[in-house]
Amino acid sequence: MKKGLLQRKVIFVGGKGGVGKSTSASALAMSAAKQGKRTLLVSTDPAHNIGDIFHTKIGSKRKKLTTHLWGLEIHPEEEQKKYIETVKDNLRGMIKPSMIDEIHRQIDMASVSPGADESALFDRIVSIILEEGTDFEHIIFDTAPTGHTIRLLSLPELMSAWVDGMLDRRKTVNENYAQWLDDGEPREDTIYQILAKRKDRFAKVREILLNPKKTGFVFVLIPERLPILETEKAVQLLEQYKINVDTLFVNKVIPPHADGQFLQKRRLQEQKYLEWIESSFKKQRIVQIPLYEEDINNLEALEQISTYLKETK
Hints:
By secondary structure, the chain is an alpha/beta fold. It contains ten helices and eight strands. The protein has an eight-stranded mixed sheet with strand order 3-4-2-5-1-6-7-8, sandwiched between helices. α8 links the parallel β6 and β7 (247-253). The chain is elongated, with a radius of gyration of 23 Å.
């Protein structure tokens, strides 16, 4: 039997834009909190919808939303600035004063290169999972649309490989330097130590992400052609990184009591898409969430949705 979602500590909720990721992640977090479990709901989506759902402002520091539930938003630009300042601090004392301005200029240029914001974002996620997460029984991530999520979740493997390469080159330089200029004894290298510590953190997070007893992955979709196709591609791509999506929330399914000729025609088309989902995602647990008559914009409505997530417990 598949392990229930809320038996895992870390849960990522992803999917195509506009399918209800933030609402589903919020309802799942509410469900955990209603069980008395300290839960942290984290938004990595630059659009940040969870504040609107809970009718409050949520910043980069955790904020209490309900009993046992806290929210936090990660802002890539803010994290990128912190990340760059950390890099500069790490280099302080290791380079000549006359070189500091030039080195900082090079770092500032690198900070606007493609992927720098995702690297900073990933660093914050690592920090939340390894350090801030010790205060919570569940950490639920409301992630950005599919492509961004896939790049983010593939970063542990890519960045570990990058750090490995940097460590190898640094080790070779140190060995040559010791042989040429010193007595051959190993030299203390602060940069090497920083890289080694970074590698250790990536390895710890990677172990957590790949352990199905600790981490669950949910994709949210609606019964329409494009979201189904995008979810198929995403699930296959994540499998290449050994990340298994084990649960699908099929959102906005027309309920049985909805009547009228228009809805009946939509229901016939929807049934074909639901059958497609059932046949295409045999490895995943599928949970249907009905279409509501009104927007989900308050805690009472969220609690109603959370009742449909009982199968995920």
